[in-house]
Write a structure and sequence with these properties.
heterodimer, A: about 300 residues, mainly alpha, two-stranded antiparallel sheet, 13 helices, globular, B: about 325 residues, 14 helices, 2 strands, about 0% strand
């Protein structure tokens, strides 16, 4: 519904060029990495644990990949180290949240800040690292029709995630844990295992996203991924997820939510309107989304 | 997430106020935090003897001033069961910018500007409470959103602000009282007064009761809505006061300048034993936890770490603090 509204507004305001193939390519390459990340971190939200640290984790992954590549490592080796680092951070998140029972938002907020510090340290005084791999750059910036390869990969991830969530036993377990962890525990599902795996998966997604950014941009900076967690979660809430309770949401909804946000900011971009207006709109959308979530049956805060 | 869920679930809301096993807001916490602080000071002093200087004391107390005031506001929100107010950075800068603007227009400092800053902050808190209470929405998400929105709105209107250097507010910010920054003293007074009043006045006890068990509080005839409005407005007013201190002691600042306080404030409130699930915590302990956390940056400089490491340490301390908070809450539940 909202997506249709955005398309209509876009068409009427920007004109028919809004749906031109070149503009679709721009939106698709912009939304590819966030969408891929959403496919993974959707599992965390579904299991009832929110991972705010993904923005800095994307930065960490791209900073490690780029710095190793500029030191002469092959892409695969650099990416592998970056992914291992992200998995390690995801494991720390899981330990704090699942084993110690830390408040998820506060704990992963700490991780968000700590990792951003590491991003600055790795990126060094220049603030950015060039890491140009011709094949990788070409691959990530080539389009099949109007759709760039990273966007197609992201779509595939969304599709796989959607199938896992709706058709497999593991997916139903995640939903059960997020919906009511006590009931799930009584039904013999290991709540700690599911939530830990969900947080580690979310970290893995951020890691892959960071590597793809290096390919798209040919470099990494200490600001890569800043604010991404906000953009992704606001979009996912618009798409039907809840960051306050688990058990609701579908990866397809997340993808649509991301397209709505990307479309909105594209409209404002084309109209040369200050990006701060985008921030205001995203903030308002976030508030509207939590209100909607509550009206859909989320816990009321009193 | 688990904590957020248990806060609103009637089954576990009973922990907190009135549970006999509850330790009185904590000597244990006080000893732990004070111990960590002393260890930090001793280790830094052994590493570099010149750490133990008046300069260090000035740097630490200077950092403590604004962080401490914000921590009092954050603690009130936490104790009342409002979880966290993530919109403090925007509120702080809003009040500071209003103060700077009024001073440029030639308002006298004598009270008027200070009052204006506090009122602006209180209105900001009241606005948050409007959304939280009438939307029945989780304060963390609401304040995350409003912080983002107000930050963007301020960027659209102005990019840089500063209190006139020759104004008496700026002079106050540069001044010293008994060898310590003049902005440090109002913080100490605020912590002591709020910490004294909270368990001893009717409003204070209502705040604690609502945070501990809102069902029991309602049964005793305490209005949930009124308390939420009062707490968020009072916390906003304190944030507004912090904005005045910030404007007095900082040079030119951008609308995003408040973000650096967010983490240290949350970490110090949790270290002080304030439970994110409400009903528990001592305001006085903030002096210790803020003191400890404000010593960390200076100490890191003496150990030769770049300022980027500060973020790493602050983030790590927050993770450890909330892990301890969660572990404590779990142990109390058993």
């Amino acid at each position: 519904m909202t997506l249709i509204a955005v398309i209509v507004v876009g068409l009427s305001w920007v004109g028919p060029n809004f749906l031109a193939s070149s503009n679709i390519t721009i939106i698709a390459s912009f939304v590819a990495v966030p969408m891929l990340i959403a496919a993974f971190s959707g599992f965390a939200l579904l299991a009832g644990v929110v991972d705010l640290s993904i923005g800095s984790m994307v930065g960490l992954s791209s900073a490690i990949t780029a710095s190793l590549m500029s030191a002469g490592w092959p892409l695969a080796g650099a990416a592998a180290v970056a992914l291992v680092a992200c998995l390690f951070c995801g494991a720390i998140n899981a330990a704090a949240v699942v084993w110690f029972g830390a408040d998820t938002i506060a704990a992963t907020l700490g991780m968000l800040v700590a990792l951003r510090g590491f991003d600055y340290i790795i990126a060094g005084p220049q603030g950015s690292i060039a890491a140009f791999d011709v094949d990788f750059y070409t691959f990530t910036n080539t389009a099949l029709g109007p759709l760039p390869y990273p966007f197609i990969i992201a779509l595939a991830c969304i599709a796989i995630a959607a199938i896992i969530v709706s058709r497999t036993r593991g997916g139903r377990h995640v939903q059960a844990v997020g919906g009511d962890d006590r009931a799930a525990g009584r039904a013999g599902i290991s709540v700690t295992t599911v939530r830990s795996l969900a947080l580690v998966l979310s970290a893995l997604g951020a890691g892959i996203g960071g590597v793809l950014y290096v390919g798209q941009l040919g470099s990494a900076s200490n600001l890569t991924g800043t604010g991404l967690e906000f953009q992704v979660y606001a979009a996912m809430m618009i798409g039907g997820y809840s960051i306050l309770r688990g058990g609701v949401g579908n990866p397809v909804g997340a993808a649509l939510g991301l397209l709505v946000v990307a479309g909105t900011s594209n409209i404002l971009d084309v109209q040369a309107i200050s990006p701060y207006f985008t921030n205001i709109i995203v903030g308002l959308l976030l508030l509207a989304a939590v209100l909607l979530d509550r009206l859909r049956g989320g816990d009321a805060f009193e | 997430m688990t904590n957020v869920a248990t806060t609103t679930s009637p089954v576990t809301a009973g922990r907190g106020e009135g549970v006999p096993r509850e330790p009185p807001a904590g000597w244990g916490t006080a000893v732990t935090v004070a111990g960590a602080w002393i260890v930090l000071i001793v280790v830094s002093g052994i590493h570099r003897a010149d750490f133990l200087s008046h300069q260090t004391v000035l740097a630490v107390t200077f950092t403590m001033a604004i962080t401490g005031v914000l921590a009092v506001a954050q603690a009130l929100v936490g104790i009342s069961g409002g979880i966290l107010d993530l919109s403090q950075p925007a509120g702080l800068i809003l009040s500071a910018a209003v103060a700077a603007n009024l001073l440029e227009r030639g308002w006298p400092v004598g009270g008027a500007v200070v009052v204006a800053g506090i009122v602006v902050g209180a209105l900001w808190g009241f606005g948050n409470a409007l959304i939280i209470v009438f939307g029945k929405l989780n304060p963390i998400i609401v304040t995350l959103g409003t912080n983002f929105i107000l930050g963007a709105v301020m960027f659209l209107i102005w990019q840089n602000a500063q209190v006139p250097i020759d104004s008496s507010l700026a002079e106050f910010g540069r001044d010293y009282l008994i060898g310590l920054p003049s902005t440090w003293w109002p913080m100490v007074v605020l912590v002591l007064v709020v910490g004294f009043l909270l368990p001893r006045t009717r409003y204070g006890r209502h705040t604690i009761a609502v945070g501990g068990n809102r069902f029991a509080a309602q049964a005793r005839g305490i209005s949930l809505r009124k308390t939420r409005f009062a707490v968020f407005s009072a916390a906003g007013a304190i944030v507004g006061f912090a904005g005045i201190l910030f404007a007095a002691s900082t040079g030119p600042f951008a609308p995003s300048a408040g973000a650096t306080y967010q983490l240290p404030v949350i970490a110090s409130v949790i270290l002080a034993g304030v439970s994110l699930s409400g009903g528990r915590g001592s305001i006085w302990l903030i002096l210790l936890s803020v003191g400890f956390l404000s010593t960390v940056p200076t100490s890191l400089v003496f150990f030769g770490f770049s300022s980027n490491w500060q973020q790493v340490f602050q983030g790590s301390i927050l993770i450890i603090a909330v892990a301890i908070d969660g572990w404590r809450a779990r142990r109390l539940q058993r």
